Amino acid sequence: xxxxxxxxxxxxxxxxxxxxxxxxxxxxxxxxxxxxxxxxxxxxxxxxxxxxxxxxxxxxxxxxxxxxxxxxxxxxxxxxxxxxxx
Amino acid sequence: xxxxxxxxxxxxxxxxxxxxxxxxxxxxxxxxxxxxxxxxxxxxxxxxxxxxxxxxxxxxxxxxxxxxxxxxxxxxxxxxxxxxxxxxxxxxxxxxxxxxxxxxxxxxxxxxxxxxxxxxxxxxxxxxxxxxxxxxxxxxxxxxxxxxxxxxxxxxxxxxxxxxxxxxxxxxxxxxxxxxxxxxxxxxxxxxxxxxxxxxxxxxxxxxxxxxxxxxxxxxxxxxxxxxxxxxxxxxxxxxxxxxxxxxxxxxxxxxxxxxxxxxxxxxxxxxxxxxxxxxxxxxxxxxxxxxxxxxxxxxxxxxxxxxxxxxxxxxxxxxxxxxxxxxxxxxxxxxxxxxxxxxxxxxxxxxxxxxxxxxxxxxxxxxxxxxxxxxxxxxxxxxxxxxxxxxxxxxxxxxxxxxxxxxxxxxxxxxxxxxxxxxxxxxxxxxxxxxxxxxxxxxxxxxxxxxxxxxx
Lengths: 86, 457
What we know:
heterodimer; A: mainly alpha; 3 helices; flat; B: mainly alpha; Cytochrome C Oxidase, Chain A; 75% helix; globular
């Protein structure tokens, strides 16, 4: 009999989320969204950035290649699996 | 002390304590991972050391990565960014530092407990009952500190990062005890299939409701600052947050599609797993449009570099995860190393890399000095990146070999010789990740305690 535990588990998240959403709605958390976009930048006086190295473009290309190869590999494998297991 | 920031800026001892916690346990976790990887191609490796055999090294590795490295690393960034975003101070730095100390004690107890044979034998829930209790206490302390900080805030609007972190700790703190069946101290489990159902609701939520929201919180904070750009859309970010909460909470049963669980649970799990494309792409479109055309700024900040790489892994792991939930795909990809590769892309590639990014981003801002060595940080970046990408490729290949063998009715022992070379490659790639962890530990500790302040390259 798993229902009591499962329901307790799902209810815990659901009730907390619902209460929080209602609070957010009433507290105006979904208003003034334009100002919210800038919140991380307020008072930000971070350290001066170092100059980019001359390998910048090279590294970006490597990263992009890695990303694309992973995506293509995953896509090929999934297509092959689907074709072999109709 | 030389400072590039405000002289009166708070010192953030809680964030520093969690940085150190994460850094040290990253090195320890990868070391245990290497030991476990050694067993896979050399089964007699360290065979005479009872508390280090594969059945113990592996759960120690998994739990140290989840609760020792990634969670504290993301919490470190959280304890820095939440006061900043709310224009206040952390409710109690003393409580925060105490939590970090207790966190380390808990991780030590986890190693001793599992090493001594008290594992509860449920994936992601192996920790002994006493350690479960300690983790619940830790989350209660973190929740209390964060909620009280929110209560005393001077900024009325909660930025999306605050939403994500708060949701992560509250939902995990609430559900950890249920998922670990904490009311049954002797076993920490129900009986039969119901236990599997409950376990995977909890197990997948460790990634979906703990690591993912905290990782996204860090990305939403770091990338706008690093590129000096406002967030593309805060409304979109909130849509992503609430859709994640709705969709991600009940996809755990996709781990049990070959198991006699109720069909409606499987259907819900599959539909919501595919629907995860919505919150994932909402987040990524928002973040990538925010940094569009600002590649140079990302490259300049090593923290942002890590975080941006984390967003790419986030894309892969989630698209892969949605596809893997389809039964026809799972026939090949489940119960083999494909899933292990998938888990490493998610936990290390996305959440772990993002945690490292958060640490490197906040350290100069807390200490007022550049990190000890930009070169070592770059070296760690590439070691981890190459390690995890290679890991994913090798484990995917191994998974396909195992999956096809399974479908063809091949016996397991005839497949093992075929995959041994890949296990050696896997261990080799693990060495690069472990090396990166130790280099990072040295760099971060030097940045905090022994930093002359002028060695950044």
